[in-house]
Write a structure and sequence with these properties.
2 domains; globular; mainly alpha; single chain; 14 helices
């Protein structure tokens, strides 16, 4: 299944519709809460991007492994529940204001986790080993989120960048276990880590202003990269003006693109990744490259007009 946003949207619509139906046995008012959450994250009826990888991963690997499409879809629906569970946990841990409030968010998250376990558990029992993998991925996630803001995000550490999204890998592990090919799981994990690292770098680029304003520089790998490109000592404060200088004068965004390109090269060398995964990773890379071209064009136009120095000098500190 070659990657395209149109095909991904269509497939996502079917998966999210089934995920919504899967809440039927939940009691009210939580059933309505879950349904609204699922509808809000369904990318099929709205513009804009989505983390398609989170829930399409079982379909991509299922096609490569040759397991029944209905089984891959079950894993994909379960991954929707898992994705929303971790989204809610992250929001509560970050202290973000949501209309649900922390109590309802945590209650909804627990129900979603139960739905995830039930959906995957239809095809696996304790002896199958799936839950050993899930425990490992959860441990990776917990280690990463507990250290967020304490350790500096490292843009060149692909495996480290992927840790916060480690539970996503359960979709690939489940497919290879169902296919009776557990020896293929380590290569799948490496491939997924590379794609997750690319996505994290792109997200950090998109969020750098918000993270910088919130005092969360250490959690943002792009800001680490900007500081490094500037040669700014750790005792000096990184400001928005300095970050823009890193972008326009020191090619920090181009450097980010080089890191994501390196992930693509590594994916190609693995030779194990399905076309959906490599296509999604390439779409992430293309987005960063487009932003870099736009940045270069802005700098060139301002330079021709004689306004570039004025532009950089008048960025708020």
């Amino acid at each position: 299944m070659p990657w395209s946003f149109e095909a991904a949207k269509r497939e996502a619509g079917l998966i999210f519709a089934e995920a919504k139906e899967g809440t039927d046995r939940c009691p009210e008012p939580m059933r309505s809460v879950l349904r609204e959450l699922i509808e809000q994250c369904d990318p099929s009826g709205r513009e804009g991007g989505s983390n398609y990888m989170t829930y399409l991963l079982p379909l991509w690997y299922g096609e490569k492994a040759g397991i029944p499409a209905a089984l891959s879809r079950d894993f994909a629906v379960g991954s929707v529940y898992m994705m929303l569970h971790y989204f809610l946990l992250d929001d509560v841990m970050d202290g973000e204001e949501t209309k649900l409030g922390p109590k309802v968010a945590l209650a909804a998250g627990q129900l979603l986790h139960t739905l995830f376990v039930e959906r995957y558990g239809r095809h696996f029992h304790g002896e199958a080993g799936l839950w050993d993998y899930y425990r490992d991925y959860t441990e990776q996630w917990s280690s990463a989120v507990s250290q967020e803001g304490i350790r500096q995000a490292e843009p060149e550490d692909a495996a480290g960048l992927a840790l916060k999204s480690a539970p996503v890998k359960i979709g690939a592990a489940a497919v290879w276990l169902a296919a009776g090919r557990p020896e293929r799981i380590p290569a799948a994990e490496r491939a997924v880590d590379l794609a997750l690292a690319s996505l994290q770098l792109a997200d950090d680029w998109a969020d750098w202003q918000e993270d910088l304003a919130a005092g969360e520089e250490r959690s943002n790998a792009f800001l680490t990269l900007a500081r490094r490109e500037l040669g700014l000592p750790k005792e000096l404060t990184l400001t928005e003006k300095l970050v823009r200088r890193a972008i326009f004068h020191y090619d920090a965004l181009e450097r980010l693109g080089e890191l994501i390109q390196a992930h693509r090269n590594s994916l190609s060398l693995l030779g194990e990744a399905p076309s959906g995964l490599t296509g999604f990773q390439h779409a992430v890379l293309s987005g960063i490259e487009a932003d870099a071209r736009s940045t270069q064009q802005t700098a060139s136009e301002l330079a021709v007009q004689g306004g570039f120095s004025h532009f950089v000098s008048n960025i708020p500190k």
